[in-house]
Amino acid sequence: QVQLVESGGGLVQAGGSLRLSCVVSGRIFSVTTMAWYRQPPGKQRELVALINSSGTTTYADSAKGRFTISRDNAKNTLYLQMNSLKAEDTAVYHCNRPQLPFGFLPWGQGTQVTVSS
C-alpha cells in the first residue's frame, strides 16, 4: 500500500521560509501527478500546488510567486519550497495525488506550518 510521509513544517516568523518534503512509498510516484494541499484551522482543505510527471506545475493564486513545487523521482520525494510566508499560510500541509481520476491515496499525518505575525 502506498504511504505518504510529510515533514519539514515548523514555526516561522512572517517573511520566513520553509521547505516541506513528502516521501511516497511504492512505484507509482514517478508516473503520478502529485499535489500539496493545506487545511487552515477551522477551514476546508485547499489545493496549494500541482506537479505532473513531466514537471509541469500549477499553483493556487495564494501560492503564486511565493511557493515552488518540485519532485525528485529518483527519491520518490515531493517538495514545496515556501518563501515570504504569511500568517494566513498557517495550516497542516499534506501531499497527495489529485482526487480525480483515481481517488486520493491514503492520507499521511501531514506537517504543521505555523507562521507568526
Description:
- This protein is mainly beta.
- 0% of the residues lie in helices and 46% in strands.
- The protein is built from no helices and ten strands.
- The chain has strands at 4-7, 10-13, 18-24, 34-39, 46-51, 57-59, 67-72, 77-82, 91-96, 111-116.
- The strands form two sheets. The protein has a six-stranded mixed sheet, with no helix packed on it. A four-stranded antiparallel sheet has the order 1-3-8-7, with no helix packed on it.
- Strand 7 and strand 8 form a beta hairpin.
- The protein is globular.
- The mean pLDDT is 96.
Short description:
With 117 residues, this protein is an all-beta fold. It has no helices and 10 strands.
Architecture blueprint of SSEs:
Elements: E1 4-7, E2 10-13, E3 18-24, E4 34-39, E5 46-51, E6 57-59, E7 67-72, E8 77-82, E9 91-96, E10 111-116
Parallel strand pairs: 2-10
Antiparallel strand pairs: 1-3, 3-8, 4-5, 4-9, 5-6, 7-8, 9-10
How are strands sequenced across the largest beta sheet? Answer: 2-10-9-4-5-6
> For the terminal residues, how far apart are their CA atoms?
40 Å
Question: Biggest sheet, in brief?
Answer: 6 strands, mixed
Strand content: over 45%
The number of helical segments is 0
> Uncertain runs with pLDDT below 50, 5 residues or more?
none
Secondary structure class reads mainly beta
Strand and helix order: EEEEEEEEEE
Task: Round the mean pLDDT to the nearest integer and report it.
Answer: 96
Alpha carbon gyration radius:
13 Å
**Number of E-state strands:** 10
Q: What coarse outline follows from CA principal-axis ratios?
A: globular
Helix content: under 10%
